[in-house]
Specification:
By secondary structure, the protein is of the alpha+beta class. The protein has 6 helices and 17 strands. The protein has an 8-stranded mixed sheet. The longest helix has 15 residues. The chain binds fe (ii) ion.
């Protein structure tokens, strides 16, 4: 039979945790990729939410070609005013996540330093990014890990009465919600936001996911303030339970692609004086149902 099939058969899939993620071994992303292999990777990603491939040497074009397996590359939306000088070229789909500066002191990327709560990329827009690829270039001596949690499994773990109560409701997703101090007089219209279905269906698998996250979900349709707080706390407990997670400790050369529809991700802190640089390229999604 053709080499293509043999190529796909050489892949070794190694689960990253019980709940989420697969490491793919036996692949070099600088080699030409045939259609069967690309389809296999996409199917595994859709089912397991995260693919990790280690030990890659990828330039911009190679990462772009890898991301393209999962859909159309997303155009970068204009960053909010206060962050614009962090993004040297908003038109370039390859984007550095770093606090590095060049020799003239200009920032080379965005998202700076420090911990970041669980979230999913662009959930506050009608058509969130479907997939995000992140390629590790410079990694600190400790910390700066990325934690992933499964929204498929979170949906499955919901108690029946809670799932029935939430069925058909929407959740308000707001950019930077988690960083707006309590009591601040910020109106929702002043922030990027979108009411998304609280349960979404992955068009590739037909599986349902609980589409909320600690950083950006501000409220659930039809609940008063006390109910809202209580229900969201319950949902964070389910999503962020240790057995629903995988924590990735990066090494240079790692590339991960995650599904923003069926997973959330968070970042741990690292020493202030150490650099952490990853290159991101994202894939456009569609309206969620
Ligand atoms: Fe993110």
């Amino acid at each position: 039979m053709p080499d293509q099939e043999q190529d796909s058969h050489r892949l070794v899939l190694h689960p990253l945790s019980e709940a989420i993620g697969v490491e793919v071994r036996g692949i070099d992303l600088n080699e030409p990729m045939d259609e069967i292999l690309a389809r296999t990777l996409k199917a595994v990603w859709a089912e397991k939410s995260i693919l990790l491939i280690r030990g890659q040497e990828l330039d911009d074009d190679a990462q772009y070609a890898f991301a393209r397996i999962f859909g159309e590359i997303a155009a970068r939306s204009k960053p909010p005013v206060e962050k614009r000088d962090f993004v040297p070229d908003p038109e370039n789909p390859m984007h550095l996540i770093t606090d590095r500066v060049d020799e003239n002191g200009n920032r080379l990327g965005s998202l700076g330093h420090g911990e970041m709560y669980f979230h999913t990329d662009k959930c506050y827009e009608e058509k969130p990014h479907r997939a995000s690829t992140l390629y590790a270039m410079e990694i600190p001596s400790e910390g700066g890990h990325t934690k992933f949690a499964s929204l498929y499994r979170a949906y499955d773990m919901l108690p029946d009465d809670l799932r029935n109560m939430l069925e058909g409701r929407r959740a308000l997703q707001v950019y930077d919600f988690g960083t707006v101090p309590v009591g601040t007089d910020v109106k929702i219209d002043e922030l990027m936001h979108y009411w998304q279905p609280i349960f979404v269906t992955n068009p590739d698998t037909g599986k349902k996911a609980l589409y909320v996250n600690r950083l950006m979900t501000s409220r659930i349709e039809g609940l008063d303030d006390a109910e809202n707080r209580e229900v969201l706390e319950t949902l964070w407990d389910i999503i962020e339970s240790p057995d629903n997670m995988y924590e990735h400790i990066w090494a240079p050369g790692d590339i991960i692609v995650w599904d923003n529809l069926s997973s959330v991700h968070a970042r741990t802190d690292w020493p202030q004086d150490e650099r952490r640089t990853l290159r991101r390229c994202t894939v456009q999604g569609d309206t969620l149902v």
